[in-house]
Write a structure and sequence with these properties.
Elements lengths: L1 E6 L4 E6 L17 H11 L6 H8 L3 H4 L6 H14 L11 H18 L1 H8 L5 H16 L5 H30 L4 H10 L7 H10 L7 H16 L4 H9 L2
Antiparallel strand pairs: 1-2
Helix pairs in contact: 1-2, 1-4, 4-6, 5-6, 5-8, 5-11, 7-8, 8-11, 11-12
Length: 249
């Protein structure tokens, strides 16, 4: 009979290994891990399903082993959120108009938050550090300054567009969760109206009547309004921006 030896700090034990039985991977110290590997594993798992056990199993280590590199579950969530935020790509600077660059960035950002709602939660908690996004901010500022913005104007425009993307992401996540729970917003409004006299809530009734034939403004429509406003405030012609956004695939 052969033997496998598992050695801990002060205790050495022997566990018989049956003939033909594959050697089990020892959990804990043998694997070499660090915060980068933990972040990558957490990103692959996704914030919605993230637990210490899930990360430990993915890396082939013990939960105790993780605690050599992270403080607790909150630290793990922050680490994963920071790593995920760095995976959101910046639009390539192709010499495009600043409005198109901001349109691309907002679309990337919104899509990332909608796909990973936990990332949005961590962002709102301030878990994503300035260091993690400094290169993105610097690239954005540089592109817009080269097109005539001051640094402060560039930051203000970016903040406005970013807020629009975040608000749209929150709305999309909320509507998706409500629909999953059987409480789709439009259906809920109709339910409320059915409980009131036809003369009550006239403007809500008017809105729902219009929604029956006209869809609500899309995220792109909302963003177009914001970008046109930025251009108008700067004294730039806004009509070309509307045309560019309309032509952008």
């Amino acid at each position: 009979m052969s033997y496998i030896y598992e050695i801990d700090t002060e205790i050495r034990t022997e566990t018989p290994l049956r003939q033909g039985e594959p050697e089990k991977r020892r959990v804990g110290r043998p694997a070499r891990i660090n915060r980068q590997l933990i972040a990558e594993a957490a990103h692959e798992i996704g914030l919605a399903d993230l637990t210490l056990r899930a990360v430990a199993d993915k890396l082939g280590v013990s939960i105790t082993g993780l605690y050599h590199h992270i403080a607790d579950k909150d630290d793990l969530m922050r680490l994963a959120a920071e790593y995920s935020s760095t995976r959101v790509p910046l639009p390539e600077d192709r010499g495009q108009h600043w409005a198109l660059w901001l349109l691309e960035w907002a679309a990337y950002s919104r899509e990332a938050f909608v796909a990973e709602p936990g990332l949005l939660g961590q962002y709102l908690e301030g878990a994503i550090s300035a260091e993690a996004i400094a290169d993105k901010i610097d690239a954005m500022l540089g592109l817009m300054v080269r097109q005539g913005f001051s640094v402060s104007e560039a930051q203000a425009a970016f903040d406005l567009v970013n807020s629009t993307a975040l608000g749209s992401a929150v709305q999309a996540i909320r509507e998706e969760r409500a629909a999953r729970a059987g409480r789709a917003p439009l259906a809920e409004h109709h339910r409320v109206l059915a409980q009131h006299d036809p003369t009550e809530l006239p403007y809500l009734r008017l809105l729902l009547a219009e929604r029956a034939t006209h869809a609500a403004p899309s995220f792109r429509d909302q963003l177009c309004t914001v970008l046109i406003g930025i251009a108008a405030e700067r004294g730039e012609p806004w009509e070309p921006i509307a045309v560019m956004i309309d032509l952008e695939p």
